[in-house]
């Protein structure tokens, strides 16, 4: 049975290999070369596929592990006690445009829902930063502990908002929030943006589109939560999505409870 330190080492190494693979794709000039359509329905780039092959090559060798991955879908024994949730390349559209904000995300859960996530690692593939969390033991970036923001006033807060391909009513709900904060941002890779929430670079993150999937979210959820962020659905209830590619859910995350309550109030009024 693998413990936290085993997972941290294994995922640090394999995502390091992913980083080199993805750099080589850039060197070969294959940044926008597509190879098909993934299990999630999005176009699969050469980089998505190479990153996934690297991860699956290692993860499929681990006994007792089922895998849910963005391009390949489900792998391994459905009765396995552990599940790895993998997004080989989050922020593919940034990658394709050579915008330096994309990452690889891996979470490992006991059981089959978000609440079972026990270990998580996200690597920023543009600079090698490694975000890690173990349930109950906090989160870190390159080994240094992370603490989410203590900014509690809306007027002082920087808030990540994903409205991509959202319906007009979603924008209408979020507009009062955008109007009340200091700055609204969106960087185009939600897993990495939630790591910014964990380290206090942004004070909150809101996505009400009902398009968030566990592959983009599972690892970041643990990293942000273990840094002290409060992350719920839009009613303020705990998130408990099933670990499959079908689940879609809204996310309201804030660095602290006071800011979280204020955001819930603004988006529900
Ligand atoms: Mg992806």
How do the helices and strands line up, and which of them pair or pack?
Elements (H helix, E strand, L loop, with lengths): L3 H24 L6 E4 L5 E3 H14 L5 E5 L3 E3 L6 E9 L1 H5 L6 E8 L6 E8 L5 E5 L4 E3 L2 E2 L12 E4 L6 H13 L2 E3 L4 H9 L5 E9 L1 H13 L3 E3 L16 E6 L2 H12 L1
Helix pairs in contact: 1-2, 4-7, 5-6
The site of magnesium ion has 7 residues, from strand 5.
Helix-and-strand structural type: alpha+beta
> Can you identify the CATH class of the largest domain?
Alpha Beta
Report the bound ligands by name, code or SMILES.
Answer: magnesium ion
The radius of gyration computed from the alpha-carbon positions, rounded to a whole number of angstroms, is 17 Å
| Count of alpha/pi helices | 7
Average pLDDT reading: 95
Number of E-state strands? 15
CATH superfamily heading of the largest domain = Fructose-1,6-Bisphosphatase, subunit A, domain 1
| Beta content | 25-35%
Low-confidence stretches: none
Task: Please report the distance between the alpha carbons of the first and last residues.
Answer: 48 Å
Shape field: globular
Query: Which architecture name of the largest domain does CATH use?
Result: 2-Layer Sandwich
Give helix % range: 25-40%
Integer count of domains: 2
Give, in order, the helices and strands.
Answer: HEEHEEEHEEEEEEHEHEHEEH
Instruction: Specify the biggest β-sheet.
Output: 8 strands, mixed
């Amino acid at each position: 049975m693998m413990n936290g330190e085993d997972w941290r080492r294994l995922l640090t190494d394999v995502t390091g290999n992913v980083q080199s693979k993805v750099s080589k794709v850039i060197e070969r000039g294959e940044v926008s070369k597509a190879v098909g359509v993934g299990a999630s329905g999005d176009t699969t780039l050469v980089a998505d596929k190479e990153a996934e092959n690297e991860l699956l090559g290692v993860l499929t060798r681990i006994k007792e592990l089922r895998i849910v991955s963005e391009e390949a879908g489900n792998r391994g024994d459905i009765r396995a006690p552990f599940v790895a949730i993998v997004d080989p390349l989050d922020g593919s559209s940034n990658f394709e445009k050579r915008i330096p904000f994309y990452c690889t995300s891996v979470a490992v859960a006991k059981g089959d829902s978000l609440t079972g996530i026990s270990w998580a690692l996200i690597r920023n593939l543009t600079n090698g930063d490694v975000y890690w969390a173990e349930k109950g033991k906090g989160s870190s970036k390159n080994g240094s502990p992370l603490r989410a923001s203590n900014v509690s006033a809306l007027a002082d807060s920087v808030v990540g908002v994903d409205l991509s391909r959202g319906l007009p009513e979603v924008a209408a709900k979020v507009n009062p929030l955008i109007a009340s904060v200091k700055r609204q941002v969106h960087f185009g890779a939600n897993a990495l943006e939630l790591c910014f929430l964990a380290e206090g670079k942004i004070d909150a993150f809101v996505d009400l589109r009902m398009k968030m999937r566990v592959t983009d979210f599972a690892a970041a959820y643990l990293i942000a939560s273990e840094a002290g962020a409060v992350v719920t659905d839009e009613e303020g209830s705990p998130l408990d999505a099933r670990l499959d590619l079908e689940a879609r859910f809204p996310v309201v995350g804030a660095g602290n409870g006071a800011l979280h309550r204020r955001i819930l109030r603004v988006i529900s009024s």
